[in-house]
Amino acid sequence: MAHDHHHDTHDHAHQQGHGHTHDHADIDWAEMAPHLEAQAELYTPLYRQAMTWLAREVTEPGLVVDVGSGPGVVSCLFAETFPGARVVAADGAAPLLERARARAERLGFGDRFGTLAGDLPGALSDLDYPADLMWASQSLHHLPDQRAALAALGGHLAPGGTLAILEGGLPARFLPRDIGIGRPGLQARIRAVEEDAFAEMRADLPESVAEAEDWAAMLTAAGLKHTGTRSFLLDLPAPVSDAARDYVTTSLSRLRERIGERLDAEDRATLDRLLDLADEAGLHRRQDVFLLVAHTVYTAVRPV
């Protein structure tokens, strides 16, 4: 996703929001791609849970569209979950779609895997036929009018087709409340700063429409029938794998760049120690680093 949140400290939400240009024009997606792939691969157990749940509601879809697909890790999981489906990865970043195509070929899905480049959701007009299942992960909150975006996505569903959106849940936690350096509660304070930054991002979008984040109500207002809501947990306890440690380190490093100046001096100093390769209390050496996050998926059906 170039982006993370439920606006998360990882970059996932951004990661997924590639179809949109509001603040992503200066992002080097080719450079970001390895980080996005690593995150999606780390989160694969969570995505597999969500797909198992979706497969009970959507049986044998003909076309699955991953809206804001990024480098295609999740798109390929859909191809694996639904072996009879054609899968289209749709995104605004061509370098990421190149990686998605390469991944599909490598995994043996190339003959039923397509890509669609362009700003979303407008680019979906180029689909050959309506989707039976459409997935949008942490991309809608980057669009100015979320309700209109839901209606646009629903318009590309076949009658009876399902829209599944991943939005919200619980933000990722990486560390205990008291980590032995600095003031306890660092991650909670970082979170509060992130919430303010996210609200400003929404408000600064051109023609932004304020909306209560009641996704079930928004889906209904968009002309769809809300059919389910479920949250899925990724629980990687300490001590974490090297891949998880790298992800946590990269996430907090990017966060330090993005919002570090909004933290007080003590918290900045603590964050800098955590990111210092030579510090015994740093993330690279700590044994108490973990990853715990919940993502929520809402489903809705286009009326027949």
Give me a quick take on this structure.
This protein is of the alpha/beta class.
Radius of gyration: 19 Å
Average pLDDT over all residues? 91
Task: Count every helix, treating DSSP H or I runs of 4 or more residues as helices.
Answer: 10
The proportion of residues in beta strands is 15-25%
Question: Uncertain runs with pLDDT below 50, 5 residues or more?
Answer: 1-24
- The level of helicity is 25-40%
User: Which secondary-structure class do the elements indicate?
Assistant: alpha/beta
Based on Cα principal axes, name the global outline: globular
Topology pattern, helix = H, strand = E: EHHHEHEHEEHEHHEHHE
Number of strands: 8
How is the biggest beta sheet arranged?
7 strands, mixed
- The separation of the N and C termini measures 31 Å
Widest sheet: strand ordering: 4-3-2-5-6-8-7
